[in-house]
Amino acid sequence: MALTMAVALLGAPAHAEDAGTKPKPSATAKPDAGVEGKDAGTAAKPEKDATAPQGAGRCTGKANFCGVFSQVYCSSQPGCAYMFGSNMCGGVAIACEKATNEAFCKKIKGCSWK
Fold first, then answer.
1. Where does this protein have compositionally biased stretches of type Basic and acidic residues (predicted)?
2. What SS3 state is found at 96?
3. Rounded mean pLDDT for each run of 10 residues along the chain, 114 residues in total
4. Scanning 9, 32, 57, 99, which has the fewest C-beta atoms within 10 Å of its C-beta?
5. Alpha-carbon span 61 to 74, nearest angstrom
6. DSSP letter assigned to residue 105
């Protein structure tokens, strides 16, 4: 087995590239043109903050308690999960005030966007 390993090591191609001799980028290289003639690092930034709440308003109300949901509908309430060991829906429903946009607010039963 040692002879097989020695042959494998010696059988490596003689033209294998040495890690210390990799070519360096040319000093005359130009940055990527990116989008619309701009450098790729500065191209097409969104005008609005994508994480900002959608529309004017806020989520109000009181989220339905997880225990009121059957197995079928339990996971439809954010924060709730069905517990098969106790055969009931459990967890803590996400508070309406935590929803930062209308779409998420509407998913929480008992909440509304105003």
1. 33-50
2. helix
3. 44 49 54 46 42 71 97 97 96 97 97 96
4. 9
5. 19
6. H
